[in-house]
Amino acid sequence: MTTTAEVAAERERHGYLLVHFVEDQVGHAEKIHLSLSVGDDPLRWTRLNGGRPVLESTAGTGGVRDPHVVRGPDGFHIVATDLRVWRPEGPDWWAYRHRGSRDLVVWDSPDLLTWSEPRLVTVAPPSAGMAWAPEAIYDPVAGEYLVHFSAGLAASGDPDDPDPEQRGTGPSRIMITRTRDFVTFTPAETYLELPGGVIDMTLHVTPVGVHRFAKQDDAAPDTWQVFHQRGDALFAEDVTTLARNIGDDVAPQVEGPLVFQENGAQRWYLWVDQYSRLPQGYHAYVTTDLDSGRWDPVELQLPEATKHGAVIGLFRDEHEALVRHWPG
Predict the structure, then answer these.
(1) Domains in the chain, ordered, with CATH?
(2) Is there a smaller number of Cβ atoms within 10 Å at the N or the C end of the chain?
(3) Calpha distance 294→146 (Å, rounded)
(4) What is the pTM of this model?
(5) Which helix (H) or strand (E) holds 322?
(6) How do residues 199-221 score in pLDDT, each as one tens digit?
(7) Is the peptide bond before 279 cis (omega within 30 degrees of 0)?
């Protein structure tokens, strides 16, 4: 009898899926878009569904940004920031940052083709001003997902203090929570703090260590901007900073790093999202030595205004099913 593990091992890895949103200066595009690699090429991409979004949230703020997709034993989950920036009168970043949504928007799918209705889940503590750029990784040992996001807490530092004096929240930090079902979450705890604030963390776990990438605030003294660190474990206290100011050759302001390994190769790609000029969107770097901290620029063929998201590797049958279901 063939086991489930043996069937999975026989499936051919082929192609990649990018879950993202689109920045639009004149209309509301803060919805979930899917882009698919051209064949197994991690540097050539096309938007599915004729470039139209495939998912939309009408709950909460009515917009979603910075989505992330994770594969687990129960299927796939998308988590996204509950935030609508676009509006005819212009954005109010102070309000978004200090009085924004403490919720995430979640979708579930068994196959990347059919998705549940969106639901809001509250993950940030009462004193938080926002819950931005969520990501999830599955822990097979514990049988649960770790979900992390960026949040600033009230000046008192008490997670249960909802900032009664209306002073605004403090510098953004990375907070982490756990869930088994993306419905019930443990109380969020601080995972990473840096002077001036830190946002947009993404994790890449290997058999011998954990690599984390994040963005230190632009205004922080001697800011690292987008940086790369390595530790022996997720909660290791001793971490090594391998690279700083990644992307400063592209633009003075970049954020939203994502990282993934090429199918069947010792090669990794790091994308950073530049937002200081139009058109905004991703630029790519590559390395063949993840521990070196050296990232070399590489040409990326991706539609402009493709914003902050996540890439997962696919199996051939999944890639072909996505093409059939949502043609480009």
Answers:
(1) 4-325 (2.115.10.20)
(2) N
(3) 28
(4) 0.94
(5) helix 316-325
(6) 999 999 999 999 999 999 999 99
(7) yes
